[in-house]
Design goal:
9 strands; 6-stranded parallel sheet; 9 helices; alpha/beta; single chain
């Protein structure tokens, strides 16, 4: 199976000690975000976990613990945008994250790491021209260290509207202008542009619109074929493999105004104070009434490649 860590929070940036402890313990307990007393126990061992997926804005805290990940396949999405601290208050400086990206790529290889440039929004400060210029500068630095860049335009979820009320959707004409420019820059620096849940409008310019976290993505990282069970997308625009996630909402400390996973800074601060690196839960501990379910886990690796797969 594929175990995800980054749909709900940024574990490498804020909870690397906890995650290392869970790797050593061999299991993790995860509350259902919509039914908190329903708890799933996931085993963490290479017999059933083929690959661990990460989404982070700061991978560096995991670097001293990378040896613990050696038995597992890995796939890392590193988000690097042009925004300053007025938008991303607690994200490290871009120059540092770019260098950390390179360090990580040298450890895991370019097939196991992707640059995320998202969400894209426009303002008087962050104009289309600025996006294009900054995108090319970053692409020039990351050239050779990844084969893909995932882009997406801001979605105005309820939490985003509440935390970033001045934000507006990016018009279709601007999306195409930016997308076309990014594809051309990507070709220049050896990167395929993959729009995330943006339809197929950019395919005619050369973007890969098949999804950003697909079976093919993971197979390229593992250098092995997978036999995935049927997947149900989170929304109709998404073609990605959204497998089990061990994170928790309202726990990311970056404080980005556009975040869809945090309801409020107050809630995040409360949850971060409840975090115990020794607990099997990301936030807090077991509670009276908790019902623990064992996850159904098995390896999805294909041991024998059929003749049809070889042809």
């Amino acid at each position: 199976m594929i175990l995800q860590t980054g749909f709900r929070t940024d574990i490498p940036a804020f909870y690397s000690t906890w995650f290392a402890n869970r790797l050593r313990a061999g299991f993790v307990l995860v509350r259902n975000p919509y039914d908190p007393q329903s708890v799933t126990r996931y085993a963490i061992n290479p017999d059933v976990v083929d690959l661990i997926g990460f989404c982070t804005k700061n991978p560096a805290p995991m670097f001293p613990r990378m040896e613990l990940l050696r038995p597992y396949g890995q796939y890392w999405f590193i988000t690097i945008t042009p925004y300053g601290p007025e938008i991303e208050p607690h994200v490290p400086p871009k120059a540092q994250v770019l260098q950390d990206f390179i360090t990580l790529s040298k450890i895991v290889g370019p097939d196991c790491i992707s640059w995320r440039y998202d969400p894209i929004f426009l303002s008087d400060t962050y104009t289309a021209a600025r996006h294009i210029a900054e995108f090319e500068q970053m692409a020039s630095v990351l050239s050779g260290y990844t084969r893909t860049c995932v882009i997406s335009f801001i979605d105005l979820y309820e939490k985003v509207r509440r935390n970033f009320p001045q934000m507006k959707s990016v018009p279709l004409t601007e999306r195409e202008t930016l997308g076309k420019a990014f594809v051309e820059i990507g070709k220049k620096y050896g990167m395929m542009i993959r729009p995330c849940a943006e339809g197929t409008a950019l395919a005619r310019y050369g973007a890969d619109c098949s999804g950003c976290m697909t079976q093919r993505t993971f197979e390229a990282a593992l250098h092995r074929p997978l036999r995935l069970p049927p997947q149900k997308p989170a929304r109709k625009e998404c073609a990605c493999c959204l497998t089990a996630d061990i994170g928790a909402y309202n726990t990311c400390g970056h404080g980005c105004l556009y975040c869809y996973a945090n309801a409020s800074r107050v809630t995040v601060a409360q949850n971060m104070r409840m975090h115990d690196p020794a607990s099997p839960f990301l936030v807090g501990h077991s509670q009276p009434g908790d019902v623990i379910h064992e996850a159904k886990q098995e390896s999805w690796l294909v041991d024998q490649i059929s003749m049809a797969e070889l042809l």
